Amino acid sequence: MNKYKSIKRACEINDVIFNEIVNNFDFKTEKDIERYIKKRFKDFKVKQGYSPIVANNNVIIHPKPRNKGLKRGFLLLDFGSKYNDYCSDMTRTIFIGKANNYERKLYNLILNCQKKCLKKIKLGIPYCDLEIYSRILLKEYKPYFKHSLGHGVDKKVHANPRVSLLSKDKAIKGDVITIEPGIYFEHKGKQIGIRIEDTIYVGNKIEVLCNSSKRLIEVQLKHKG
Q1: Quick check: helix, strand or coil at residue 163?
Q2: What is the DSSP letter of 32?
Q3: Cβ atoms within 10 A of the Cβ of 134, count?
Q4: Could you tell me the CA-to-CA distances from 158 to 77, 167, 187, 225 in Å, in that order?
Q5: Closest by alpha carbon to 72, among 98, 52, 110, 107?
Q6: Mean of the per-residue pLDDT values for the chain?
Q7: Which distant-in-sequence residues (6+ apart) come within 8 Å of 95 by Cβ?
Q8: Could you give all domains of the chain from N- to C-terminal order, each with its CATH number?
Q9: What tens digit of pLDDT does each residue of 110-156 get?
Q10: Exposure winner among 74, 106, 120, 121, fewest CB in 10 A?
Q11: Is 55 helix (H, G, I), strand (E, B) or coil?
């Protein structure tokens, strides 16, 4: 099985696990969700591409899951299986409880940024131009975008080509990259972290390999932390 098919299959496994999490949200802590993801990887007989990130109300970009009770607010889920030795990478941010208008505005800002960046990808585009474009879209929230727009994906989850301000790479057929705008900041004493990430195949047309919903999914706690 070639690189494209392997990564596509890995993304399909991620989609199944994400849907299971949101459709039966019966977790008390971030660690509970991390354990579930790892268990399902084993069930599918695949390895993890990297340690799953589960972050509830957290401004750290790549935090370790905590064993503290989940609370109302954004919950960032970043995980990827490894199939046939090829990695995948996906992030979705959901909401525990009912999001208010301000929280929805923030989420839609990131979602619209990601959608517009995806539409801009075409063969030959310098990846640094995508990075610049994403920061224009985020406007006043640009200082809170604390990492690159994306990266290549291969047998390592972070590979070439680079998708950053310093990148000298241009999009060529066969590239597999991520597009993952995000913002992380504190507002009225509450930490907010939102990121939306897909693994993308670059061909004559781009193909988004992650099919998990990107609408703001709201889940309710069954266990009060």
Answers
A1: strand
A2: H
A3: 24
A4: 18, 14, 31, 34
A5: 98
A6: 97
A7: 73, 74, 75, 103, 107, 216, 217, 218, 219
A8: 3-219 (3.90.230.10)
A9: 999 999 999 999 999 999 999 999 999 999 999 999 999 999 999 99
A10: 120
A11: strand
